[in-house]
Structure formats: C-alpha cells, structure tokens
C-alpha cells in the first residue's frame, strides 16, 4: 500500500484530543470505506440519492425527516437560510437581500463561540444576523424572550463543550419559547452522541457532524420536522450548491449511521478500566498526577486528566503539550486547560500501541 506520509512528506499524527476537525475527525471503518468506494465508482441522480438516503436514515432513527449536508457548519448556514427564505426562490437566490428584515437569529451569548470559526460566521453565511441573549455566564428564558420581535427568524442553540455550561436556559425551555412564538428552534449538536434526545424534546432541526461521534467521512446529518427539512433542501438552488456533499460521502455517512445505531459502545466503567494502567504509570512519576474525568459537557466520554507540577518538573503543561506535537509522530492532546497545568487524553481513537507511545514521549519530555 502506498505510504501517504512518505509520498507527501506529511507528519504522522496520534490523535489523543478527540474527534477534532483539524485532525480529520475520526478514523472510518472498512465498512464505511466500502460504501464510499461504491459511491465513488458509480453514478446517481444526486438529488434522488440524497432523498432516498434521507428517508432510510429517518426510518433508522424514527424521526420525521433527515438530510445529509457537507459539514455541520454547512448545516448551520443552510438551516438558518431556510428560516429566512422559506420556499421563496427570489430570497433563496438573494440570501443577503437586505430588504428582508426578518433575519435575526437569537442565541445565548455564551454560545457564540469559536469552534475553529465563530458560530456567527456560519449564521451570517446563511443570511442571519446574530442577536445574543443574556450574558456570557447567564442566559435565562426572560433574556431570550425580551429579544423576540417581528424580525426574529429563529432560535439557535449550540450544544458543545466549547460553550458555557452553567446558567444557560435549558433546551426544553428554549423549545417551549419557540412553540410559544411560532419560531423554529435549531440545535447544533455537532459532537453529541445521542441522535434522538433533542429531536424528541421538540427541536425543529438538529445538526450532527458526520466525522465526530458517527465516525463517518466529512459530512453532516440534519434531522428534524418534515416541513423544515423540505425547506432546507431548497437551499440546493442557492448557498447549498456552493457547499455540496459528494456521492461517496453521502453513502459513507449513511453506512456510518447504520453502524452507529447498532454499535455496542464502551461504558464509562470500561473506559476507566482502559485507562487504569496508563494512569498508574503516570502517577508513579514524581510531579505528575493522572486521573479519570468525564466530559465537561456531560457526554459518556471518559478521559485521562494529567496534572503537571512545574516546580518539580521544571517544565509546564503548555510546554509539554507543544513538545508532544514535535518529532516524527505528532501527538495532539486536549489542551484547553494547559494554562492551568493540565492536559487531557481522549482514548476514543487511540490504539493500545499509541497509548503506550504517549507514555514514552511524556516520560522523555519530563526527563523521567
């Protein structure tokens, strides 16, 4: 087999940071690759393929409607656009037509985050104008309700570890506001693992990245109410055309979803057990403490949280994280708390050999 790393002189990466877009999301299985190969090797009416795979997925998930798009960011942009344009072809073709004032998109202030690009960028691509509700650490129902007016097009909610987790209005109350004022509620749940919970709570549209929990190719799944998804499909005549998804990725994601809903996932205890020896080795090094922690956003994900004592090691966590990214094999960890002296190891895409290699590199870097 051709060695891509040698041919293009790119660095090999060990992904201990999780399902991160900058590293390509996830490894895809041989079954998914087989479906992608079938897509790449054959011709289809793409609209027909999208419609039929959407119907198949909606039956798998027991939801009204489903549709595959190019990415979660694309899903946000097209969903926002559909709330502004409806079925009006002129509006679809002139998405940024300023004569249409009804384009305000309300979201909690603590949700207007940068996930690689600001949420605001995706909203504005879809013709929306972001209106932030509440404060960075507090957004209540009354904060959102006070902003609703004749120009409000939709309510947007971002379910992500990037967002503020405390003091924010619940999805249940957010959906209730949408129903009260007849406004669609859009939820970006890109990295979330439960494909039904937010739909079952009444959201009109929920967006999932294809490359994260679903372990599919670059793509995204949008599920929701039938009328909403019907309107979203119309964006293929407008901005949807410039962010189209390929036939191989349509079939790849469909297969990935089929596998995902039938997959036996590791329990929290099983994940802790897999980290037991890893943590044990690190805890034997003076100046390092490693323990298991659950994902801050509440997902069923256990990671190793490694704390480094700079006084004992003569090197801080930021420096360690950067050194791990050097060499012939670059190790990417979760570095959000490196300024606090801590990094996290996500094991979902790590082999046992890679986990052992991370131990070796940490010991080399700290001189133990």
Features:
single chain, 368 residues, alpha/beta, Aspartate Aminotransferase, domain 2, Aspartate Aminotransferase, domain 1, three-stranded antiparallel β-sheet, globular
Describe the structure.
- This protein is an alpha/beta fold and 368 residues long.
- The protein folds into two domains: 30-261, Aspartate Aminotransferase, domain 2 (3-Layer(aba) Sandwich), CATH 3.40.640; 265-366, Aspartate Aminotransferase, domain 1.
- 39% of the residues lie in helices and 18% in strands.
- The protein is built from 16 helices and twelve strands.
- It has helices spanning 4-8, 30-41, 46-61, 72-85, 89-93, 119-125, 141-145, 171-180, 197-200, 226-233, 247-261, 268-274, 276-283, 310-313, 317-324, 352-366, and strands at residues 12-16, 65-69, 104-108, 129-133, 152-158, 185-188, 205-209, 220-224, 288-294, 302-308, 329-333, 342-346.
- The strands form three sheets. A seven-stranded mixed β-sheet has the order 2-8-7-6-5-3-4, sandwiched between helices. Strands 9-10-12 form a three-stranded antiparallel β-sheet.
- Strand 3 (104-108), helix 6 and strand 4 (129-133) form a beta-alpha-beta unit.
- Helix 4 (72-85) crosses helix 6 (119-125).
- The model has no long low-confidence stretch (mean pLDDT 94).
- This is DgaE family pyridoxal phosphate-dependent ammonia lyase.
- Belongs to the SelA family.
- InterPro entries: DgaE-like, PyrdxlP-dep_Trfase, PyrdxlP-dep_Trfase_major, SelA-like.
- Its cofactor is pyridoxal 5'-phosphate.
- One of its GO terms (molecular function) is lyase activity.
């Amino acid at each position: 087999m051709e060695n891509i790393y040698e041919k293009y002189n790119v660095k090999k990466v060990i992904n201990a940071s999780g399902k991160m877009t900058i590293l390509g999301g996830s490894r895809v299985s041989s079954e998914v690759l087989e479906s992608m190969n079938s897509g790449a090797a054959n011709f289809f009416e793409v609209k027909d393929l999208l419609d039929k795979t959407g119907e198949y997925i909606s039956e798998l998930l027991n939801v009204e409607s489903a549709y595959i798009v190019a990415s979660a960011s694309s899903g946000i942009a097209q969903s926002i656009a559909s709330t502004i344009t409806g079925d009006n072809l002129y509006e679809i073709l002139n998405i940024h037509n300023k004569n249409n004032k009804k384009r305000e998109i309300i979201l909690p202030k603590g949700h207007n985050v940068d996930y690689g690009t600001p949420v605001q960028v995706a909203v504005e691509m879809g013709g929306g104008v972001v209106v932030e509700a509440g404060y960075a650490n507090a957004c209540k129902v009354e904060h959102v309700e006070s902003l609703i007016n004749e120009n409000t097009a939709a309510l947007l909610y971002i379910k992500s570890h990037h967002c503020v987790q405390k003091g924010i209005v619940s999805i249940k109350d957010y959906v209730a506001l949408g129903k009260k004022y007849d406004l669609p509620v859009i939820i970006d749940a890109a990295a979330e693992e439960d494909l039904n919970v937010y739909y079952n709570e009444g959201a009109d549209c929920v967006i999932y990245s294809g490359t994260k929990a679903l372990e599919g190719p670059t793509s995204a799944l949008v599920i929701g109410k039938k009328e909403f998804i019907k309107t979203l499909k119309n964006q293929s005549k407008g901005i949807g055309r410039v962010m189209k998804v390929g036939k191989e990725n349509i079939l790849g994601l469909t297969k990935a979803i089929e596998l995902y809903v039938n997959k036996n996932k590791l329990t929290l205890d099983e994940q802790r057990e897999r980290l037991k020896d890893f943590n044990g080795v690190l805890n034997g090094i003076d100046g390092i403490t490693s323990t298991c922690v659950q994902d801050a956003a509440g997902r069923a994900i256990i990671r190793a949280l490694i704390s480094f004592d700079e006084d004992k090691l003569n090197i801080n966590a930021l420096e360690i994280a950067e050194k791990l990214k050097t060499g012939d094999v670059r190790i990417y960890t979760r570095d959000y708390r490196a300024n606090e002296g801590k990094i996290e190891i996500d094991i979902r895409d790590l082999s046992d050999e890679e986990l052992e290699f991370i131990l070796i590199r940490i010991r080399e870097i700290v001189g133990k």
